[in-house]
Amino acid sequence: MVSCFKAVRDFVVFTDKRLIAVNVQGITGKKRDFTSLPYSKIQAFSIETAGTFDIDAELDLWFSGLGKVRLEFKGGSDIRQLGHMVASYVL
User: Which residues form the Bacterial Pleckstrin homology domain (predicted)?
Assistant: First the structure.
């Protein structure tokens, strides 16, 4: 595991080979959807930093055969560092 970011219920884990998005579902949170997305399938990506009034940062990833995946992070997250990390695995 290289890095992990948590939202209210969901979270995403970045490893050296893939990112794993975990979607917690249901009232009790016992049902979880694990989606493994390998860096080798990323065709393009972009980052959007948090602004003054927009407190969320975003990472958009385009995967071959899947399309666009958007990950939203709290404003305190270092989205630039995350972009550098993704670039080092993709390029």
Answer: 2-90
CA atoms within 13 A on the CB side of 75: 7
Domain ranges of the chain: 3-90
The one-character DSSP state at 30 is: -
**pLDDT tens profile 60-89:** 999 999 999 999 888 778 889 999 999 999
CA distance 60 to 56: 13
Adjacent-strand bridge partners of 62: 44, 68
Alpha helices in the chain (DSSP H): 79-90
Maximum CA extent, the chain? 40
